[in-house]
Amino acid sequence: MMMQRSYIAGSGSYLPARRVTNQELSETVDTTDEWIVSRTGIRSRHIAADGELTSDLAYEAAIRALEHAQTDVDDLDLIIVATTTPDQTFPATATKVQARLNMRHGAAFDVQAVCSGFIYALSVGDNFIRAGQAKTVLVIGAETFSRILDWEDRSTCVLFGDGAGAVVLKVDPENSAGSGANARGILSTHLHSDGRYNELLYVDGGPSSTQTTGHVRMVGKEVFRHAVTNLAAVVDEALDANDLGRPDLNWLVPHQANKRILDSTAKKLGMSEDQIVVTVDRHANTSAASIPLALDEAVKDGRIQAGQLILLEAMGGGLTWGASLVRW
Ligand code: UT7
């Protein structure tokens, strides 16, 4: 059986209206704009309004992606939402998006891989299409990370923001998986995790352990160290798998945690600063939403063009990390 390749037919994103600058944060948190900018590159973030839920952000991103992909809800086979901040412990946030889209067929579920969630969800969607089990998949990364922050902990609360991004994956009947790295589509996805590092980045609560939601805890320096090493390795793994080299890359669309991590990865890849799509300055770290938010921005402003080679990569709690190569 010839496996079918998937391609990204369209993208969409949504940010909550309220924008919070470092200056505004420093009025309630013991921090400064200078510290945040110099250590992370973050200048502002968006924070969801009271009562504005992850599913609301996901829905807004979804309708924009469906419109951009000129895809009708009736054509969707599957919705996957990558999130660490679901509306409820269950059911999956994806089912709430499904209901709001008036979709009464197919399936919807969530994927949990924290900041690597979008790469994981993209991989799952791509594999459903490759295996012939779906033809059209809506893949969303959506977070209200502000709800799991400890606003008394300055080492974490300044780093994150809320938002959502989505893509529509479609089977490309023209391009079978055997058609090479020059043909349009998701060339490959590469996922990793190492559960020994749970305590470096986690939430100190959960239904089974504390019966509370909990707050984000992070050993930032250690996570930084692992991020730089693991991302360099998975990027090379993705290039090798497709017989491609670093000079073949046109764009790096990375998970947006820290501008210093982005610069370090780009430097290792021999890419110039203007080949990295950067949103961390305006969005901060939106976890599973950061890659589709950045991707949508670069697609809509015309930076990303047909035929170009795009590298997506992320690393997050778990530890989890992954990458995907996409021929646009
Ligand atoms: O998305 C998932 C993956 N996450 C990441 O990739 C995050 C990776 N880690 C990082 O981005 C960085 O480690 C941080 C931005 C979190 C921290 O930067 P750092 O250069 O590693 O700083 P640090 O944790 O070593 O803190 C240095 C100092 C400490 O003070 P002392 O002990 O040296 O006096 C902190 O107390 O900075 C202090 N500090 C702050 N000062 C002002 C920590 N947070 C703040 C703050 N404002 N918000």
Describe this structure in words.
- This protein is α/β, with parallel strands linked by helices.
- The protein folds into two domains: 173 residues, Peroxisomal Thiolase, Chain A, domain 1 (3-Layer(aba) Sandwich); 143 residues, Thiolase/Chalcone synthase (Peroxisomal Thiolase, Chain A, domain 1).
- The chain contains ten helices and 13 strands.
- Strands 1-7-6-4-5 form a five-stranded mixed β-sheet, with helices on both faces.
- The model has no long low-confidence stretch (mean pLDDT 96).
- Bound molecules: oxa(dethia)-CoA.
- Oxa(dethia)-CoA (UT7) binds next to α2, α6, α7 and β12.
Kindly report the name of the CATH homologous superfamily of the largest domain.
Answer: Thiolase/Chalcone synthase
> What does the average pLDDT come to?
96
Physical arrangement of strands within the biggest beta sheet: 1-7-6-4-5
CATH architecture label name of the largest domain: 3-Layer(aba) Sandwich
Offer a concise description of the structure.
This protein has 328 residues and is an alpha/beta fold. Helices cover 31% and strands 27% of the residues.
